Amino acid sequence: MKLTIVYDNEAKEGLQKGWGFSCLIETGYNNILFDTGWDGHALLDNMEKLSIDPKSIDTLVLSHQHWDHIGGVTTFLNRNADVDLYVPSSFSANLKKEMATRINGKLYGMKDPGEICRNVYTTGELGDQTKEQALVLRSENDNYIVTGCAHPGMLAITEAASSFGNISGIFGGLHDSQEYGVFKDMQMIGAGHCTSHKDVIRKMYPDNFVKIFAGYTIEL
Ligand SMILES: [Zn+2]
Ligand SMILES: [Zn+2]
């Protein structure tokens, strides 16, 4: 399974950076785009530079309804509408209706934990105010969490994700969560996007902290 960060507040040289998050998950069975950043043109531009064909993507998952995660959706769908789309079930009804007319696949409103594709699971919709889903990736021996902004808090996300097995690592935005204890058994802490306390996490877990940015890629 391969994970590539396509959009982040930080980017490697030659790629565009912008407030938001998006990553590609290639499982060998499916190509899943998780979130789209806010600027779809920057998203597509980064994809091109990373030699990712937007048309190779069969599944789009949106973590939550904030602009820095869904702003690029229309631009992406104009390039490739042959996707199934998974959004938290509390997404606005109008947005769901609009998005459903733009895709050739099906739109699924996710509430409960469950499988999205082979080896890829959603935590289901978490949180009170900003509802958000995170993904759990199951590689050969390990499970990894992918988060958008982590608004429901790291504890809630990790607890929900743990129902799929032990968690070995996490990638994505961790917002202002100070529930640092959840990282203690993780081998990889890829804190990106909106993570407020990157320095604290890096100091607490210097061996396991992973710097992520648009263009970062890893085989899991
Ligand atoms: Zn957010
Ligand atoms: Zn965000």
UniProtKB/TrEMBL annotation:
SUPFAM superfamilies referenced in this protein's UniProt entry, alphabetically: Metallo-hydrolase/oxidoreductase
GO molecular function, one term: transferase activity
Superkingdom: Archaea
Domain Metallo-beta-lactamase: 28-193
SMART domains, per database record: Lactamase_B
Pfam families: Lactamase_B
Protein name: 7,8-dihydropterin-6-yl-methyl-4-(Beta-D-ribofuranosyl)aminobenzene 5'-phosphate synthase
Naturally occurring in which organism (per UniProt): Methanolobus profundi
